[in-house]
Amino acid sequence: MVKAIVQHEHGGPDTMKWEDVTLGKPGPGQARVRHTAVGLNYIDVYFRTGLYPSPLPLTTGMEAAGVIEELGEGVTSFKVGDRVAYAGRPVGAYSEARIMPVDNLIVLPDSIDDTTAAAMMLQGMTTEYLLQRTFHVKQGDTILFHAAAGGVGLFACQWAKHIGATVIGTVGSEEKAELAKAHGCTHTILYREEDFHKKVMEITDGKGVPVVYDSIGKDTFEKSLDCLRPRGLMVSFGNSSGPVTGVDLGILGAKGALYVTRPSLMVYNATRPDLEKSAADLMKLVASGAIKVTINQTYPLSEARKAHEDLEARKTTGSTVFTV
What is its EC number (predicted)? Predict the structure, then answer.
């Protein structure tokens, strides 16, 4: 038996219970991984609430680091004792140990400790595909990134600075503005006090930006479109304020023949080669110091309820890690 956070119904943080669960043996192509650290991400809230449907009982969580304890039949690419990390489906990371498909695992180099790995895989590889594949950010580009002091936001500010791009970031407080600036954000906009569309147009001399990265959703969607230059790309990769629904596609033409995409890490890293390259690109920048992983909150895994409450109340910045 191992302990895990289990939900028997979708809903608020109070639906998450710390319970004993039975863990079987790994089958062909699988490994039993004992977790040493687990990452918290906003997508965990979507699974918890049922916005992203998942069968019950549910153990959520999509990111962790740990050690391989046992391998299933036919696995030759890993060995017992390997330090590994992962990010993505299947959900179930909020547990002391679990069975995982080995195709989802990445062996960790000695230069990256388990806590850092648990804080960087999902947010870091999300940043990789957003900036390198969804829209190829180049030196000299100016981009708008919402929630710049959040987990993905701090990775994106650093990665974009490394590329040589200028980041305009929206934040919720002066404290978060300073944090974003310390991680490479050039211009910060306090969205509660300022009209971010007006500020973006001022910063860009009325031209707008070629791409907007938005994990907020319905509260920022339409005004974000107004920040784009003609034929610009709106990248809607989250919905912390609620999902974007009922969009009239005609507004894309009226606002400048715009593009909109709703990408996901699971699709971009669906193949083993894509996953390995994404992880390698991330680890290279972390190992070089170009990206520093900022862990600003830690909680025991048994206190996942409190962590979710703080996350939804926008009390967290950077990355959050559960200790196991």
Answer: 1.6.5.5
One-letter amino acid at 177 equals A
Residue range 72-118, pLDDT digits in tens: 999 999 999 999 999 988 999 999 999 999 999 999 999 999 999 99
CA distance linking residue 272 with residue 269, whole number of Å: 7
pLDDT tens digits, 41-58: 999 999 999 999 999 999
pLDDT at 251 over 90: yes
pLDDT at 246: 85
Residue 188's φ and ψ, nearest 5 degrees, are -115, 145
Measure the CA–CA gap between 56 and 118, rounded to whole angstroms: 25
Q: Which pLDDT does position 241 carry in this prediction?
A: 84
Distance (Å, rounded) from C-alpha 62 to C-alpha 39? 8
CA distance 184 to 176: 13
User: Residues 115-118: contacts with CB within 8 Å, 24+ apart?
Assistant: 115/36, 115/37, 115/65, 115/295, 115/298, 115/321, 115/323, 116/286, 116/293, 116/295, 117/37, 117/65, 117/85, 118/36, 118/37, 118/38, 118/39, 118/63, 118/64, 118/65, 118/85, 118/321, 118/322
**Alpha-carbon dihedral sign for residues 203, 208, 211, 215:** positive
pTM score, two decimals? 0.92
Question: Of 8, 37, 188, whose CA–CA distance to 121 is shortest?
Answer: 37
Task: Report the DSSP pairing between strands 30-40 and 63-71.
Answer: antiparallel
- Structural domains in the chain, sorted by start: 2-121+294-323 (3.90.180.10), 139-262 (3.40.50.720)
Q: How far apart are the first and last CA of the chain?
A: 15
